[in-house]
Amino acid sequence: MGRPPGQPARGRPPAAKKSGRVGVPVTVLALAGVVIAGIALAPNDPDDVSYCVDQNDTVVADSECDGRSPGSSGPRYIVIGTHGTGIPVGSRLDATNTTTRVVSTDTSARAAAGVPSSGTVKSGTSVSGKSGGFGGKLFGGSGGG
């Protein structure tokens, strides 16, 4: 004869039920592994570089962003972002790669963005120490980007 369901065999203690919980050390180690793997697999962020552009984000001659006067056909901007280097005059930049847009004649905004407050800024130059921002003069003085 068999035993009723749920009854242990004679002489054996009932089997311990597993709770489904994982110990803290295992969880911590697993989380650390995921973080380390994520850091190792993450691509390097491209450097922020500057370009002199017109109101349509078309690259213009660096001399048009010398900080002395607006361009002959409208304001000029220094844009900073992950555009890469070597983009020729006449090319249109992808606005989604722009992190900062500075009116080229605004000396304080230029300095805050990490470029010299006056003079020509060579296109494709790596920019470090920029503070960026959204609105005000950093984005053409219109109060937004």
Task: Lay out the secondary structure.
Layout (H helix, E strand, L loop, with lengths): L23 H18 L7 E5 L23 E5 L16 E6 L3 H7 L11 E2 L19
Antiparallel strand pairs: 1-2, 1-4, 2-3
Would you kindly provide a written description of the structure presented here, covering whatever features stand out?
The chain is α+β, with helices and mostly antiparallel strands and 145 residues long. The chain contains two helices and four strands; from the N terminus they run H-E-E-E-H-E. A four-stranded antiparallel β-sheet has the order 3-2-1-4, with helices on one face. The protein is rod-shaped.
Uncertain segments: 37-45, 130-145
Number of distinct helices: 2
Give the CA-based shape: rod-shaped
Total strand segments: 4
| Coarse structural class | alpha+beta
The chain-level mean pLDDT equals 72
| Order of strands, widest sheet | 3-2-1-4
- The percent of residues in helical segments reads 10-25%
Note the main attributes of this structure.
145 residues, alpha+beta, 4-stranded antiparallel beta sheet, 17% helix
Quick overview:
The chain is an alpha+beta fold.
